[in-house]
Write a sequence for this structure.
């Protein structure tokens, strides 16, 4: 009979928790639909200024009611190169502050009997709003948020009802008392338990709700609850680290930074544990008139005292640690860099600007131009590496190898897009300053260069997609066609090498003649292939599908060559006029 009672309690508790999580999900999704795009836009504009990142993380997490969603978003932004690692750490700090709002919602509205008085009418009104304005996205999203909030509060009420009276289970009550008898070691043990439970539940808000209900029902004391909350803050970092498993090195570092920040926050709190707890107790007594350390059943005991104290602690913990650790972001980054060791391939496959940043410009215009020039050299190196993936598409042994190469090409295509945008933005900012005529002309040339480098990346991607379509439609070239395309590949490689050499040299001493010679060789060979191709079609040597794929490829290579010569011409427009015939 005892087993059956326990089984029913577990089922009721799991059902109440599921309802709470579903309400949380609806509430979060409603707010993300309402403000998600704006939130992403804000995240994308964050600089390395810690205050900017912290405020943004706080506002975004408060708005979408999910620190997990914010952190995963941050990891993806870092992974894509849209957010620096230092900026990501600041946003994560702010996200920890924003997530405290959930605890306050539960404490103020979800505990006791007050929730049922307005949660169901709230849900009814929200459902009416959703169905009445189903075609108006903004009102529908607001309605979904209200429904989610109502279900969250109902779930909290069911969680409280599912909690059994411990007086009926003296063994459990005795076990809880024994856990708290080991002083500081009890705190450490409960931190570990809180972290593990949060990892299992995969929802920090749900873990916080469970802790608050346990406090309200008198299961655990204040110190035990605080230890579980600190453990929950560590356990919640698991989601971001799971999301970062498929990310690049930068994305992994962002996730590790979340873990490092929360672990150090716990350590700092433990070092000042008793003074902090005494301060929270004084604040709680002033608000609810009851000390959270008052024993259950004793004079002056209030079931609302510990949940209120816990919400104050949760806010104090995250805000206080942010105020302290915000000054140590460089040190956190050093620890993260030590934890995550990138391999050479990871470094190559990351989007990372080496010579220019999102911070302020240097005072000397020429130094800014030089930084931009070095970044363009880095851009060229990425483009050349991207080009080296193309031959492997033809020689891929199976579909898995082919898809792996395609994924890298697609990733590099995204890198070239981002690099063009960031370098162009930097050049535009330079142009707004006081520049000489020569400096203005150089920036104009650089803008043309980055535009054409990005176009080269697009052309490489188009060649790769043509190869993919050819593979999917089972179009096969004969030996002569493959050898012709290999030769065209080599000619374009030579042109790219000349271009890269020109970008690395003094802009006033480039080899424009060599660039034109490489371009001419490409054009002449393209003409030869086109003439042979037309003859082959007339003679019926191969069918139209093969001919279309074949001509499409050598035409794309020639188009790529046009962008290559444009780069060399853009390096110095005066050289172009001298080289024109």
């Amino acid at each position: 009979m005892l087993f059956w009672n326990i089984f029913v309690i577990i089922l009721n508790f799991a059902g109440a928790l599921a309802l709470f999580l579903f309400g949380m999900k609806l509430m979060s999704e409603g707010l993300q639909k309402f403000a998600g795009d704006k939130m992403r836009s804000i995240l994308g504009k964050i600089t390395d200024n810690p205050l900017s990142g912290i405020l943004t993380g706080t506002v975004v997490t408060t708005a979408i009611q999910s620190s997990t969603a914010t952190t995963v978003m941050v990891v993806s932004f870092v992974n894509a190169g849209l957010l620096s690692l230092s900026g990501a750490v600041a946003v994560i700090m702010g996200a920890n502050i924003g997530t405290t709002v959930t605890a306050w919602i539960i404490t103020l509205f979800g505990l006791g009997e007050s929730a049922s008085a307005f949660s169901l009418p709230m849900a009814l009104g929200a459902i009416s709003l959703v169905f009445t304005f189903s075609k108006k996205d903004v009102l529908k999203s607001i309605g979904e948020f209200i429904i989610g909030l109502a279900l969250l509060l109902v779930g909290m009420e069911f969680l409280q009802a599912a909690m059994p009276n411990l007086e009926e289970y003296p063994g459990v009550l005795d076990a809880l008392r024994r856990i708290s008898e080991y002083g500081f070691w009890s705190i450490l043990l409960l931190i570990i338990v809180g972290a593990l439970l949060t990892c299992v539940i995969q929802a920090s808000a749900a873990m916080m709700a469970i802790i608050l209900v346990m406090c309200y029902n008198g299961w655990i004391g204040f110190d035990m609850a605080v230890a579980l909350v600190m453990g929950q803050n560590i356990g919640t970092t698991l989601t971001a680290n799971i999301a970062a498993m498929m990310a690049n090195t930068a994305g992994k570092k962002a996730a590790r930074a979340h873990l490092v920040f929360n672990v150090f926050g716990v350590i700092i709190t433990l070092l000042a544990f008793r003074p902090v707890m005494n301060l929270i107790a004084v604040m709680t007594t002033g608000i609810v008139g009851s000390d959270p350390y008052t024993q259950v059943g004793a004079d002056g005991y209030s079931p609302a005292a510990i949940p209120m104290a816990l919400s104050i602690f949760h806010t104090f913990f995250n805000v206080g640690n942010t105020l302290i650790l915000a000054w140590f972001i460089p040190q956190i980054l050093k620890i993260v860099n030590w934890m995550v060791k990138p391999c050479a391939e990871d470094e190559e496959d990351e989007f990372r600007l080496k010579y220019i940043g999102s911070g302020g410009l240097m005072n000397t215009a020429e130094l800014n131009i030089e930084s931009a020039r070095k970044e363009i050299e880095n851009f060229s190196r990425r483009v050349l590496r991207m080009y080296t993936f193309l031959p492997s598409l033809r020689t891929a042994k199976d579909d898995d190898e082919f898809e792996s190469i395609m994924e890298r090409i697609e990733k590099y295509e995204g890198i070239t897009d981002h690099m063009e945008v960031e370098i162009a933005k930097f050049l535009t900012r330079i142009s707004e300053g006081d520049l000489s005529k020569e400096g203005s002309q150089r920036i104009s040339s650089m803008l043309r260069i980055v535009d054409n480098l990005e176009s080269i990346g697009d052309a490489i991607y188009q060649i790769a997609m043509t190869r993919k379509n050819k593979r999917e439609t089972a179009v096969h070239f004969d030996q002569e066609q493959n050898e012709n395309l290999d030769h065209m590949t080599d000619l374009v490689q030579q042109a790219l090498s000349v271009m890269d050499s020109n970008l690395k040299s003094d802009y006033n001493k480039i080899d424009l003649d060599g660039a034109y010679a490489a371009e001419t060789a490409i054009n002449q060979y393209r003409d030869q292939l086109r003439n042979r191709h037309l003859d082959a079609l007339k003679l019926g040597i191969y069918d139209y599908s093969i001919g279309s794929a074949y001509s499409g490829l050598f035409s794309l290579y020639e188009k790529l060559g046009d962008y290559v010569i444009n780069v060399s011409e853009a390096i110095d427009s005066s050289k172009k006029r001298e080289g024109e015939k």
Remarks:
- The two ends are 99 Å apart (CA to CA).
- The first helix runs from residue 2 to 44.
- The chain has two domains: 48-112+166-339, 353-579.
- Confidence is low (pLDDT under 50) at residues 358-365, 574-581.
